[in-house]
Amino acid sequence: MRLCPAPGGPAPLVVINHGSPARAADRPGLRPAACDSEAVQWFAARGFAVALPLRRGYGASGGDWAEGFGRCPQADFARAGRESARDILAAIEAARRLPAVSGDRPVVVVGQSAGGWGSLALASLNPPGIAAIVNMAGGRGGWAEGAPNTNCRPDLLASAAGEYGRSARVPTLWLYTANDSFFAPAIAQALHAAYTAGGGVAEYRALPGFGEDGHRLFFGRGGSAIWGAELGPWLAARLGRPLASGAAR
Question: Considering the entire predicted model, what is its pTM?
Answer without folding.
Answer: 0.96
